[in-house]
Write a structure and sequence with these properties.
homodimer; Nucleotidyltransferase, domain 5; 2 domains; six-stranded mixed beta sheet; five-stranded mixed beta sheet; 14 strands; globular; 2-dehydro-3-deoxygalactonokinase (chains A, B); transferase (chains A, B)
Amino acid sequence: MKAEWIAVDWGTTNLRAFAIGREGILTQAVSEDGMGRLDRDGFEPALLRLISPWLAEGTVTDVVACGMVGSRQGWHEAPYRAVPCTPLDAESLVTAPTRDPRIRVRLVPGLKQTSPADVMRGEETQIAGALALLPGFDGVICLPGTHSKWAHLSAGEVVSFQTFMTGEMFALLSQASVLRHGMQGDGWDDAAFDAGVSDALARPERIGARLFGIRAEGLIAGLSAAAARARLSGLLIGMELAAARPYWLGQAVVIVGSDGISASYARALKGLGVEARLVRGGDAVLAGLAATRAKVVA
Amino acid sequence: MKAEWIAVDWGTTNLRAFAIGREGILTQAVSEDGMGRLDRDGFEPALLRLISPWLAEGTVTDVVACGMVGSRQGWHEAPYRAVPCTPLDAESLVTAPTRDPRIRVRLVPGLKQTSPADVMRGEETQIAGALALLPGFDGVICLPGTHSKWAHLSAGEVVSFQTFMTGEMFALLSQASVLRHGMQGDGWDDAAFDAGVSDALARPERIGARLFGIRAEGLIAGLSAAAARARLSGLLIGMELAAARPYWLGQAVVIVGSDGISASYARALKGLGVEARLVRGGDAVLAGLAATRAKVVA
């Protein structure tokens, strides 16, 4: 089974490749060869380990890759483009140096914003994909995750965006801080989540005081692990929403992400009177890479 | 050299012991046998490894210990006392089970507050020590650290207190998050610290947005590692001060802690018109343990 072209989502911790044919995805493969564990010479071999079976001898197969692979510490730098701009631009793709004659690898550049300083790498492809899936969309796209992004879209361009470390802070606080003692397991408590969101939004200046309270209530008031986890998540998402208010207030919002975290954001936004539409993150990446590929070929 | 009694500050990561004579400290010793690496049977041997040379045969030497050693996961639980109360109370000391006939070990209980839920263990001894060093003090004691505490003191009692995870969040964000890339080394930049404090206090609802900006400015605007570290510290301390406003506004404030972090807090408070007095944390612990010992003997 040979691919017509290959779509690659290459982040810090994972490498995902998709063999694309005329009718769409033929097959896919994933490895843990993320950017974080590769040196510069390791990228091409890591890619070939996954995609060799999809390559035809004597033919050059296009590979379009987005994510941290195009960062300064990645395979080859694809310099940031400055907003306002479209989320993708075929002429700004950077060709990675390769030895294998069967592939031509193009890296998608990220976006940067000068003031306030901000960067994204990978999310621009999801935004392009969301626009491809929702033609003519004007409004705000929220991309929750390790580093959540909010982007204001107008007439097909990213006008401004803002990054929040919400997912990374949740991971650090729930797994590596003193709070980890009271929130093991996968339990969840919607009411505690809602209360956390409301609390952070109503009194954002108190957030610093509310975090340790989770531990203290666990020690002296029997707060359950499920309620502790959900409240921490609610407080952090509420803190993000407090700062992102100019993005969602009175706006059409699309959430692009994985199912679980997108549902949490949608729930929090609904409480604020915002009905968000949801797009799966994986669908958005593929649609964005396909839109990029279509521009390259055109 | 035999001790009249032995003062012990026994936290999660360290064990510090002081041999005390008529004139004060005779000698001291420290080990990494913190509560975190000991099981219940390991406490007495760990203590004896440090203090055996100070014990006289045929005599029982008093040991007074504060900190996590008295927690549920410690040597023996010294149950929290509920505020409002004095920071120490000789009748609430708990005697740890020991085999060696040369020692009698008393553990200082921590304090708890029901609403909002909060706990302290170790800081109550520093507060007692600060009161011993500043007789008649009424006002607020700030104890910066991994888990910073603010305590309102009136007529010798802890009326209320509040814990902030500021130090732990600084450690996690500067060493384990994406921000670590741009803040290696020990550099410092006072102006960046001041700006971080001001920013967090003026617009606490934006804190979630300001953290990733440190990374972004490093990537696209050349923010120095020293400025990045200092701004992160300023933002986190500013966030704490925003929530602790009822504690410091218009109050006499004493900061009890190590020199570096106390100076940062004093600088931030000075910018808010609050001239804080400083007491060294080590001095406060010893003064608190000495006051406890004096009550036991009396």
